[in-house]
Structure formats: structure tokens, C-alpha cells
Give the backbone structure.
Amino acid sequence: MEKNKFEAILPIVIGGLLNKIIEETNISADEAFEKLYNSELYEALENEKMKLWTYSVPKLYTIYNDEITKGKLELLG
């Protein structure tokens, strides 16, 4: 994908994931953003080659929640 298209899509994906985090955890938007921004998932989302931006918001939330629960990002298994 062209870099400018990826950069246009990524904020939409992140926005949807933030809304899901807020909805599921009842934390503030600021806290949700801070937690997501400091996660390994966020770093992986920024890497276009990993293709995580193609995942659905519910799938990304599951990955995020697993990372928070287990303390590490697990993409396989």
C-alpha cells in the first residue's frame, strides 16, 4: 500500500480501537490513549508491513487485552 494511504487509514483504525477500549474498560479517553500508545500493539500497528491495520477492531481489542493481561504482545497462537 502507498505510504500516504496507510497513513490515512491508521488513525481510523486507532480511533476505533480507542473507542472499544473506552467502552470495554470504562476508562477516560486520555487514559485509554496513554495505555494504547505505550503498548507493543501500538508500535506494531505503526509498522505497515505487519498488516495489523487490516484486522477488525474486535480482533485488535482482543490482542490489546491479551497484551495487558499477559504483559506481552502475542500475535501467534
